[in-house]
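for the writeup, i need someone to sanity check this before i put it in the appendix. the sequnce is what the collaborator sent (i think, or maybe the updated version? ugh). structure was predicted straight from it, no edits. if anything looks off just tell me and ill rerun, i have time this weekend
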Amino acid sequence: MKQTPAASHTLDARQQAIVPIAAFAAAGDIAKLNAALEQDLDAGLTVSDAKEILVQLYAYAGFPRSLNALAELMKVLESRRQRGLSDAPGREPSKPIPDGEALHAAGTANQTRLVGAPASSPVFEFAPAIDEYLKSHLFGAIFERDNLDWQSRELATVSMLSALPGAESQLQSHMRISMNVGITQGQLRQLAQVLNERVDADAARRATQALARATAAR
């Protein structure tokens, strides 16, 4: 799959940088997000990477936290500019994002590839609108943006959901999706370690438990 880089047994520095940014943004901890952005931009995370992670956040933690996190990123970048620091801009998507029926079709195809089969749920039958939003907004409009690869998007998603109490079912699902796109169990264990070291023990515990359940179910 073009969007799935070769698997490794460890997370590289860029992948590790995604974890605290995604987790603190999801938790709404702006002060710690500020510090994480500073540290990880210093480590070479691009502006585009950070921006994409915080835009994607809206699908998991809502527009308010996504908007607040993006506003904080703007403040951090301006502060760094005033201090004479120049951050790598990264890149924009390489292709136009489809719209209308084409967007829905692309999102459905992406969701099927990520999940490993066509997605179905009694919830989708009960509330078809949520199925439409998942396909068109999340797996369509967001996952069609190829300036952040699917492995990075799943690392961000798992980190976000680990920071959100009550999202354990979705976290377990995204552990499975992460493995479907080539992230190894060793990398996911390391993600939990990064959460423990840089975020908090509760988020790390949720990630570890969800990985164990997802692995047992495979």
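Residues 104 and 153 are 19 Å apart (CA to CA). DSSP finds twelve helices and no strands in the chain.
thx in advance!!
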